[in-house]
Amino acid sequence: MKLKTLTIAALLAMATSASAEVKIALDSKPDLETSGSYNWAFAFGTALKAAGMDVREMPRGSVGNEAEKFDQVSTGLLEISLSDVRAVAQVDPFIYGVRLPYIFENIDHMDRTLAAGDVYTRINENLAEQDAILLALAPLGPASGVITTTQAVRSPADMASLRMRALDDAQIA
Fold first, then answer.
1. Residue 72 within any structural domain of the chain
2. pTM to 2 decimal places
3. Cβ-contact 148, 164 below 8 angstroms
4. How many domains in the chain?
5. pLDDT values of the chain reduced to their tens digit, one per residue, 173 residues
6. Hey, how many other C-beta atoms are within 10 angstroms of the C-beta on 114?
7. Among candidates 36, 49, 35, 48, which has minimal Cα distance to 9?
8. Is residue 171 a part of any domain in this protein?
């Protein structure tokens, strides 16, 4: 399951003023039809606007790579970053557990497991040392982490007829 941490946020910076500008670093095109993470960012930004805050969406890549975005969140220059779980894993590798294939039956199962295990509290205790917090995790793609154009991969057996041509760094990590 390819997960994006949808908001590593230094909320202390934005909590001081209802009129503060909140910058959201996007991880994809701002397209509600094709981007699940943008749907989350749009809904979150809308809620912030309703609370009286100014929201500015920062296009993908405009504020740096993942490490640079994490540094900016930690220092208060950037309030929210839609980031890969690797940004959190550099502080607490425990988060990599959410990327294990076939561990969750579906998104609801993942959400229940994270809540029952109090995972956000554990992760956020470690992220607090970096002045950042994890607000949400959004699974993107199938639970197996294997995306094909011809068939769904819901179990290891579904891969019997598939050939893996290349692995990305997230699959190798």
1. yes
2. 0.73
3. no
4. 1
5. 445 444 444 333 334 444 579 999 999 999 999 888 899 999 999 999 999 999 999 999 999 999 999 999 999 999 999 998 888 999 999 999 888 888 888 889 999 999 999 999 999 999 999 999 999 888 776 666 677 778 878 788 888 888 877 666 666 65
6. 17
7. 48
8. no
